Amino acid sequence: MILVTLFISLAVIAAGYMFSSAVHRNIIQNNRLEIQERFIYFQDGLQGIFQTGESLANSFEAYIHAGLADSDSQTDEYLSSLIQKYDDYVQIIGMVKDTTIIYSFPHSDEEPLNVDLTEVENQREGVLTVKRKRETMFEGPLPLIIGGEGFIMRIPLLDQDGGYWGQTSIVMGRESIEERIKELARESNLEVLVYTDHEESMRLMGDEEMKRKSPYRLDDVGKIGWVVYALPVNGWYAFTNLRWIILLFGFILSVLAGISYYRHERADYLLQASFTHDVLTGLYNRRYLDMIQNTLNRDGKAAGALMYGLILIDLDRFKLINDTYGHHVGDQVLIRVGEILLGACNGEPLIFRIGGDEFLIVLPDTDSEEQLEDIHRCVDNILSEGFNGDEYLSQVGASTGSALCDSSCNSFDKVLKEADERMYKQKTEHRSRK
């Protein structure tokens, strides 16, 4: 009898312990999921600051290339309307020919015209790096020519032959950037520590003591090399004595363990899906592409003969849909394109939405250029058929480009760049036929 009672008691305790553990994991998982959403919100908001400067520079460059800048007054009027959207961050828009400032807006008595930036000590390296690499660069905080401190986004300007012509400079005030970061941290209920370099030698804000509290680390925020540590203001969730209380009622409550387990698995699934899939279209997202890219690069170097194909798709005139019918129709167009792509490819392709209106198909085990061209041609045909039969899609088009990683390739970026160049070549041909 004593043994039976002991056995039953141990069974009840074991059941209660298993149930309490399941509840514990569920609470922890839900807490982490909620905190992860705050991290994502903060990171997206921070990236939006940097995208603001790049978007403004791209709009200005498009305005110039379109031949609309007939006079300084027209350019001033255009920039005045453009900068109003970003006046929380942007102080100055400048144009640099080679390395010398030839235009600056807004105008002032302290306008730094005809200043050769290679003669400005704290800006020489940045302007020469952009000239040499022809890549966008974000640097700061650094002393500004007009006084004070700020951040500068430098975007290369190329001539019609693709050669270096100069740069567009977007100057953002340090105080406004720091205030926006603090605002995002408050909205996310996070404590943050921000470095403006990978080496973590240039601290912008935050207390380095925070590193001892096991913070979450965000690398290369905005693709500009910033490193951010983030931590919930109230710290990580600390489990209480709830487990021991539940043990007293474990036998009765153990039947709920299955529900808790289901919720735990579902939360884990949703968390994983949110990191790998695009919310709008259900296709894979940019985060998952980064994971696949690392795998392809690593396996390609190890095996020496890993082959795959890429097909890059960019919608033409998609902005016209958003401007004419609204973003809700634009979203429906993107969803429809995703459905068409899913139905266009046989086998086991990986289909991504990697930008606003940009999609990518990764084709594992593609053996030859001929095979890739056949699949590429099939995708083009199905896209054309799907577009022609749709009220809104018929008003846009698609430019595509493909590239093959053969036995000699060891870099995903190179293959993607080749596909991108072919896609833009086709887009240019589309524009020339209009």
Walk me through what this model shows:
It is a single chain. 51% of the residues lie in helices and 21% in strands. It has a 5-stranded antiparallel sheet with strand order 2-1-5-4-3, with helices on both faces. The chain has a 4-stranded antiparallel sheet with strand order 7-6-9-8, with helices on one face. The protein has a 4-stranded antiparallel sheet with strand order 11-12-10-13. With 434 residues, the protein is α+β, with helices and mostly antiparallel strands. It has 12 helices and 13 strands. A hairpin with a 4-residue loop joins strand 8 (216-221) and strand 9. Helix 9 (318-325) runs antiparallel to helix 10 (327-344). Residues 300-304 have low confidence and may be disordered.
Main sheet: which strands, in order across?
A: 2-1-5-4-3
User: Main sheet?
Assistant: 5 strands, antiparallel
Structural class: alpha+beta
The strand count comes to 13
* Proportion of beta-strand residues: 15-25%
Radius of gyration: 27 Å
Helical coverage, percent range: 40-55%
In round numbers, the mean pLDDT is 79
Produce a short descriptive summary:
The chain has 12 helices and 13 strands. The protein is α+β, with helices and mostly antiparallel strands.
